[in-house]
Design a protein that fits this description.
The complex is a heterodimer of chains A (about 60) and B (about 280).
Chain A: E1 5-10, E2 17-21, E3 29-31, E4 38-45, E5 48-53
Chain B: E1 4-9, H1 14-25, E2 29-34, E3 51-54, H2 59-71, E4 76-77, H3 80-86, H4 89-98, E5 106-109, H5 112-121, E6 127-130, E7 141-143, H6 146-159, E8 167-171, E9 179-186, E10 189-197, E11 210-213, H7 218-230, E12 235-243, E13 246-253, H8 262-265, H9 269-282
Helix pairs in contact in B: 1-9
Classes of the chains: A mainly beta (about 60), B alpha+beta (about 280).
């Protein structure tokens, strides 16, 4: 089922408009459709969403 | 009073979303706790949940958060005693070997000369070198000969962190069917399993392995139960090889990813995890 996209923000790398799926949570990682950069949802306040560049995979990441 | 569950995390993946949905379905309140935003000070920490589920993608951060919460009386699934074994491949192998559970032969060394001795003891090349800490099939090296062994160990010596300089060497186990089995085990019981098929020797789904359902046999549930008890039980995902002499446990993961396994198995792994968390909370 296609998710309803109601929010958007600006990519911190390429400034493109980034659509935010409705059920997105803070700390979730999404991708910019334009430059493919991984972006973290830092904060959601009403319709204002703050993004930052997602960290690269670190040595201790995993299951 | 309704139970409140703290989900410790460093990022929210599809797995955590499934857990949140499962908790809502089971009428358990959830609090999302990004451990990077917390101040773990025992004198000031305000308890906002009854029990925690550790889901950090960072093993180090997850372990410190777990130890802190346990120290102030908040139970954590998995406990630090389980995590301490499962986060380290060498410790996992030691525990499995001590418990008499089939596991590939292994050794730990700190230098190339000792690595050469270890390879001989393990039956010769090929062997696999793995980081003790780490996951998703990253930084695994299948070593086919002495040249490759010397090259990989020199790179680790020069470029690696101190932990990378403890060389875990494991006997290479050929997978005749090009697959291994990922077994999901909760509270010592196997709830489901998948085959991970790949033409590559690394079969992790994070590296492109394809998941299909695996019927749980008595052999699978038996070895899984023994391994679970050996690492003190909890929510575990075990990687199992099929060999000519039977099943052998390769690794055990304590913060398992499962989002790609619920559909092929038809089992709500997230739902089973939440049920177990409730059971642990009620037993205290």
């Amino acid at each position: 089922m296609q998710q309803l996209q109601i929010l958007s923000s600006e990519c911190v790398v390429c400034d493109a408009d980034v659509k935010i799926p409705q059920n997105t949570q803070v700390s979730e990682v999404i991708s910019c459709a334009e430059c493919k950069t991984g972006l973290v949802i830092e904060n959601i306040k009403g319709t204002t969403i703050r993004l930052s560049k997602a960290p690269v995979v670190e040595e201790d990441w995993g299951e | 009073m309704a139970l409140t569950l703290g989900i410790l995390h460093t990022t929210i993946r599809a797995d955590e979303k499934l857990l949140i949905a499962a908790a809502n379905k089971q009428k358990i309140n959830t609090v999302l706790v990004d451990v990077r935003s917390e101040v773990f000070n025992p004198e000031t920490y305000k308890r906002a949940f009854d029990i925690a589920l550790e889901r950090c993608v960072s093993t180090v951060k997850g372990m410190y958060a777990t130890r802190f919460l346990e120290s102030i009386g908040i139970p954590v699934v998995n406990s630090s005693s389980v995590a301490a074994i499962c986060e380290d491949k060498f410790l996992t192998s030691l525990v499995l070997a001590r418990a008499g559970i089939p596991t590939p032969k292994f050794a730990l060394v700190f230098s190339t000369a000792q690595a050469i001795q270890a390879v001989k003891q393990l039956g010769g090349f090929p062997v696999v070198i793995k980081p003790n800490l780490g996951s998703w099939g990253r930084l695994l090296a299948k070593i086919n000969d002495l040249d490759a062994l010397e090259a990989v160990l020199e790179h680790k010596e020069v470029l690696g962190s101190p932990q990378q300089k403890a060389f875990y060497i494991q006997q290479y186990v050929k997978k005749p069917k090009g697959r291994d089995i990922r077994v999901f085990v909760i509270d010592d019981k196997t709830i489901c399993a998948i085959y991970r098929n790949s033409s590559h020797w690394i079969t992790n789904t994070a590296r492109g392995g394809v998941a299909t359902n695996c019927s749980v046999t008595k052999q699978i549930s038996s070895i899984a139960a023994k391994a679970s008890k050996a690492v003190s039980s909890g929510v575990l995902a075990m990687d199992v090889f099929e060999t000519d002499s039977g099943l052998t446990i390769n690794e055990i993961n304590h913060t398992m990813e499962f989002k790609n396994s619920e559909i092929p198995t038809g089992v709500s792994i997230s739902g089973e995890i939440i049920k177990y968390v409730r059971k642990v909370a009620q037993s205290l």
